[in-house]
Design a protein that fits this description.
The chain is built from eight helices and eleven strands. By secondary structure, it is an alpha/beta fold. Pfam families: PETase.
Length: 292
């Protein structure tokens, strides 16, 4: 469909220009002083910038988004490996990836525009393993290799599921994922995200992947009014829920638990954000706050 491809190309170019704009200074809820796994709490301000300033290192195979002061208070930083949509580069998603880094996450974004098989994504873990063990590296002893997530958009969303076949990956966030993947190959918790008005990856396609994930804890969220390009740039309405999910599974942030789990989960009743929301039986079995 030439018209759709033309609109996609224009949208990606505009997003790229926006993504390279100067990111806002990191801020956090001043009342949130507790720490979770060594990473400062942000209360429940998932969509606001986190407590870390961010540096970006653009290399041949990966672009790394990371806290500028890694390990300054003895903390270690979990990892997210990222996959781009078809024809895209990490800069298209720069503001979203910076946002996650401001919350204390090291993001290893594969530079490839064809990420589906997740080869370069998984190689990002290898790079960080080496640097974490290298006394001459700024990453030395500062990477939490026990807590790794995979995430991506469109083709990269499928790649996020494919990357989760790696035993080192603990959770995945497929954003508007393409169909070339098989959830049966992994058993990590999944947060599937669709866009209500996505005409490229229809919500029904994302829901089919979700329904094929009955063997693992899975949540399906359909963002109200979102099209296929709504998640690029700063992530739009995808930003806060993905941040909350990653903080819960990679940092053990208990402030995020009640947004997804338990009988009174916050996101379950948020009809302004979601046009569709489901949790499968394994997700329903995860207790909410207070073990309820």
């Amino acid at each position: 469909m030439p018209g759709r491809k033309s609109r996609l190309s224009v949208g990606l170019l505009l997003a790229a220009l926006l993504a390279f704009a100067t990111a806002p200074a990191a801020t956090a809820d001043p009342a949130a002083t507790a720490t979770t796994g060594g990473i400062p709490s942000v209360g429940t301000a998932w969509g606001a910038p986190g407590p870390y300033e961010v540096d970006v290192d653009i290399e041949a195979v990966h672009t790394f988004y990371h806290p500028r002061s890694m390990g300054a208070s003895g903390e270690r930083h979990p990892v997210v490996i990222w996959g781009n949509g078809t024809g895209a580069v990490p800069g298209i998603y720069s503001s979203l990836l910076r946002h996650w880094a401001s919350h204390g996450i090291i993001v290893a974004a594969a530079n490839t525009p064809t990420s589906n098989f997740a080869i370069s994504m998984r190689a990002g873990i290898d790079v960080l393993e080496r640097r974490n063990a290298d006394p001459g590296s700024e990453y030395f002893g500062r990477v939490d290799l026990e807590h790794i997530g995979s995430a991506g958009h469109s083709q990269g969303g499928a790649a996020a599921v494919n990357a989760a076949i790696d035993a080192r990956v603990d959770t995945a966030v497929p954003i508007q994922p393409g169909p070339l993947t098989d959830p049966d190959l992994t058993d990590v918790p999944m947060f599937y995200l669709a866009g209500q008005r996505d005409l490229t990856v229809w919500p029904a396609l994302v829901k089919a992947l979700y329904r094929d994930s009955s063997h693992l804890p899975a949540v399906y969220g359909e963002v109200r009014g979102a099209g296929h390009l709504s998640s690029i740039g700063d992530g739009g309405d995808f930003r806060a829920p993905t941040t909350a999910w990653l903080r819960f599974w990679l940092m053990g942030d208990e402030n995020a638990r009640g947004f997804f789990f338990g009988p009174d989960c916050v996101y379950c009743g948020d009809g302004d954000l979601w046009s569709g929301w489901e949790r499968n039986a394994r997700a329903l079995a995860i207790p909410g706050p207070g073990g309820v």
